[in-house]
Specification:
2 domains; nine-stranded mixed β-sheet; Rossmann fold; six-stranded parallel β-sheet; alpha/beta; about 400 residues; single chain
């Protein structure tokens, strides 16, 4: 069967940067990301939110790579930047979504997302074949956001996402079971189509981690790391900072390194108020791949205190380095981590207690190194690509079937 003769559009709420020449830039969606879709499709049209590249400061551009390229172009949803734009520019938003759909043979819609909801609805109206990638729990994200508006919107956004995911003809879940229970599908469903794929690490990675653990002494500085954009609340930076303060109060000599783009001033103020400014470092962005792995290899713990999370790419990457990982009891993290390494959202005391207990037990740290390293193999590129190909081929066959 001939492949790569169709154009697919991709919809998501993520924000890219766009310059005056029409080039788009992203940290999480660089050009090489789209190769997963170009393996089955001739062209990809990307429809997301966007901000002006020229007006962003140099610091806010760090880590961004060009997203468009050969066979990948962007038809951005420029009219939608904030939720209230739905009230004032709804018709324009719909026109932009329909334009991308009309120019493509089918769509891949990443959900939960507002643009995703609208793209699903318009796809059904246009009788356009589409598949959905389910990557997070909308209720968790909005409910845990920390304000009244989020709690009011949580059940509404959750219900609407659930409605359209159920109506989608083809659905890819990043989890084995968790997301499927929250957002069941009446269509053809594929499990374990993670939005993460790792190259097989060298055997030296685990060996070096064990050496590091064996050489640990009570005088060693415990280095904790986390990754998350500083301009969003859902990554839980404040929880991590407060947990470090609690660890210091327990007598632990530790430091926290935070990787991520954005303004760190508010978090730096929190560190100052807690008296731990010297114990927290804001590293800005680090290029993905080798640079991130080299940084992780220096850490003792990786933490992900998010209020919502899918698998968490950085969590799986940290596990692949044999790192001890402690994270919120949410989303796909429930499948990746044991209960003893998870804490309730925002509970920095529980988070600090888990880290403290692991520090005190070298055998447990070594056990976690082996366990996490082995678990990460599930996300090796060849395993994930096999599942994704099944999803994409089903989408292609539906386009051929429906003409």
């Amino acid at each position: 069967m001939e492949r790569k003769k169709f154009t697919v559009s991709f919809f998501h709420d993520t924000v890219l940067l766009c310059d005056s020449n029409g080039n788009h830039y992203s940290i999480h969606f660089p050009y090489h990301f789209w190769q997963r879709y170009l393996s089955c499709f001739k062209k990809v049209i990307v429809s997301t939110r966007c901000n002006n590249y020229e007006t962003c400061g140099v610091k806010n551009k760090k880590g961004y790579e060009q997203s468009n390229g050969e066979d990948v172009r962007h038809l951005s949803i420029v009219s939608y930047k904030k939720l209230y734009d739905l009230f004032f520019d709804y018709k324009k938003i719909i026109e932009e979504i329909r334009n991308a759909l009309i120019n493509s043979d089918c769509a891949i819609i990443r959900m939960p997302s507002i643009i995703g909801i609208l793209a699903c609805r318009e796809s059904l109206k246009l009788k356009k074949t589409f598949g959905v990638e389910v990557v997070a729990n909308a209720f968790e994200g909005y409910w845990n956001y920390g304000n009244i508006a989020g709690k009011l919107l949580a059940p509404i956004i959750h219900f609407i996402n659930k409605y359209y995911i159920k109506k989608a003809p083809i659905v890819a879940y990043i989890t084995s079971e968790y997301m499927q229970k929250i957002y069941p599908s009446n269509g053809i469903a594929f499990a374990d189509v993670a939005n993460i794929s790792l190259e097989v690490p060298s055997h030296d990675v685990l060996a070096n981690r064990i050496v590091k653990l064996v050489n640990y002494t009570n005088d060693s500085i415990v280095l904790i790391g986390m990754i998350g954009a500083l301009n969003v609340k859902f990554k839980g930076h404040a929880t991590a900072i407060r947990a470090v303060k609690a660890l210091i109060d327990k007598g632990v000599n530790c430091k926290l390194q935070i990787v991520g783009e954005g303004d760190s001033s508010n978090l730096a103020d929190l560190c100052y108020k807690l008296g731990i400014s010297k114990n927290v470092q804001f590293l800005g962005t680090i290029p993905s791949g080798k640079c991130v792995f080299d940084w992780m290899d220096k850490l003792d713990f990786y933490v992900q205190p998010s209020i919502t999370e899918a698998h968490g790419r950085a969590v799986i990457e940290a596990m692949s380095r044999g790192l001890a990982v402690v994270a919120s009891d949410i989303g796909g993290l429930k499948e990746s981590l044991c209960k003893t390494e998870r804490f309730q959202v925002g509970d920095y005391e529980e988070m600090s207690n888990i880290i403290y207990d692991i520090i005190q037990n070298q055998d447990r740290r070594i056990e976690l190194a082996y366990r996490n390293y082995e678990y990460s193999k599930k996300f090796h590129e060849e395993n994930i690509e096999e599942q994704r190909k099944l999803f994409l081929n089903e989408l292609v066959m539906n386009v051929e079937k429906n003409g």
